[in-house]
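dumping this here so i dont lose it again. seq + smiles for flavin-adenine dinucleotide
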Amino acid sequence: MLRVAVVGSGPSGCYTAQTLVQQDPEVSVDVLDRLPCPYGLVRYGVAPDHEKIKSLQGSLRTVLEHERVRFLGGVLVGGGPGGLPVERLRELYHAVVYCVGAAADRRLGIPGEELPGSWSATDFVAWYSAHPDAADAGFLRGVRSAVVIGVGNVAVDVTRMLVRGAPELRPTDMPQAALDTLTASGITEVHMVGRRGPSQARFTTKELRELGALPGTEVRVDPADLALDPADPAALPAVPRRNLEVLRGWAARPSADAARRIALRFFLRPVELLADAGRVGAVRFERTAPDGRGGVTGTGRFVDVPAQLVLRSVGYRGAPPDGLPFDAPSGTVPNAAGRVVREGDLSPGEYVAGWIKRGPTGVIGTNRPCAKETVTSLLADAPELLRRPVPEDPVPALRAAGIEPVPWAGWLAIERAEADLGARLGRGVVKLADWDALLTAARST
Ligand SMILES: Cc1cc2nc3c(=O)[nH]c(=O)nc-3n(C[C@H](O)[C@H](O)[C@H](O)COP(=O)(O)OP(=O)(O)OC[C@H]3O[C@@H](n4cnc5c(N)ncnc54)[C@H](O)[C@@H]3O)c2cc1C
């Protein structure tokens, strides 16, 4: 029996486990995750009001309930306190596939970025998604106007969450504290700002359109911002073309009298976060113009946008476990068709899939072919990998290292506790938001 550890239970980990057991009847898979809860960013990233995408958890669940797949939560892989070193993990399995994602945020690298009130969108998403590492940082305290820097789908998500009201948020599984804070917030204005033009924005049309359908919220677009880049092809690809149609529709609409406003702004490059009484008070932008090569250039004209909250959503980067090679510029683990490359050589028995393999791009489904490629490499190597003896069951070795894994039954107990909490609050399922509550529920089996 080929024994494989998959590190990470997000989409790429689950698709890797699924492909392994589908393609080889002689393989068993342990899916390890540092959290006691599975599903990675499907649980802790996908916006709570996107229930259809959230429901993908159902198909990932089927994978983790397969008879030759075992979920072991609460297992941190890598150096540091409480972590299992990658060298030790490697001894316990014939092969290890790292599917650890790329959830660290990219920085802007401008003055004022560290001011209170300036956060990465990752921090904000983690908070409303009940990630146990997230704290209530007082994101919305005293906030009337927010700036979201970035024009991708995550920027759209956080913009939408900032203006959603109680009737739409209450049915979600959002933790109660986040629900209370969001619905009581005094925010009236969110500026979502891109450095380049609308044809280069990365959001998709469905997500963009949703902003125009939010109750009590008006979307404003300045027609002057909708200039095309001379470097754009005459016939734009479908997504930017449709995005522009939506934006032009909004730009042409007369202004309405709504309680909240979303301003979509382009050709503005953040240059500094300005302080007001010790926290962020405004963002200074330089106006940009297309440089004719698909980029932008500064114009020397500046504009300040008042904001007591700034969310930076300018991309993600990998932060793999200590002990794995890392290519900092791409934020990925060097690999050849999923085989980890250490100092130019293939490293036997070590693989990667998902965001840590190819970078933070694509939709959830993109991780499926990515995982398949890795599994193809792994199964081709299997005869060689099987030569090395490994323990029948690695759990005793984990315990000896001071790690007590949360089994699938522990996760099911968390699910029950979340359903009970929701029932007590008169809501549906409500997520547990801290380590203590999760582990207490998990150990209550
Ligand atoms: C905010 C946000 C919203 C998104 N919304 C959508 C959407 O609506 N639709 C869509 O198609 N895509 C969406 N995506 C993209 C989608 O989530 C990713 O494509 C997908 O989650 C990547 O899968 P992954 O398995 O590589 O990483 P992840 O989903 O990040 O999973 C990685 C897993 O590894 C675990 N892990 C990390 N380090 C360790 C370690 N050292 N030891 C043990 N375990 C570890 C983590 O706990 C996590 O469970 C969104 C992404 C973000 C960031």
